[in-house]
Design brief:
By secondary structure, this protein is α+β, with helices and mostly antiparallel strands. It contains two helices and two strands. Strands 1-2 form a two-stranded antiparallel ribbon. A hairpin with a 2-residue loop joins strand 1 (about 25-35) and strand 2 (about 35-45). It starts with about 25 loop residues before the first strand and ends with a helix. About 5% of the residues are buried. It comes from Methylorubrum aminovorans. InterPro entries: Tc1-like_DDE_dom. Pfam families: DDE_3.
Length: about 90
């Protein structure tokens, strides 16, 4: 994230500001349909098993219709117990 090169007058040191790594993580979890995104959830921090379980129960399940397909990748939070039963 920091520049490796800069310009300065001859004989002067190049002074650049560098971010110090104090980042805020925001996680977006959403379901997609052919008509666009649905069941959107924004959360501060990373997704863990409990947060994903709450997302499925409170956001995803209410918008599911018969015949919908739910695809999960191999993220560790997707593998917690109770997700398959809720869907």
């Amino acid at each position: 994230m920091a520049r490796r090169y800069g310009r300065a007058p001859r004989g002067k040191r190049c002074q650049l500001l560098v971010p110090q790594g104090h980042y805020k993580t925001t996680t977006v979890t959403a379901a997609l349909r052919t008509t666009g995104p649905c069941a959107l959830d924004l959360a501060d921090g990373a997704t863990n098993g409990q947060r994903f379980r709450d997302y499925v129960a409170n956001h995803l399940v209410p918008v599911l219709r018969p015949g919908d397909t739910v695809i999960l990748d191999n993220l560790q939070a997707h593998k917690v117990s109770g997700i398959r039963e809720r869907v």
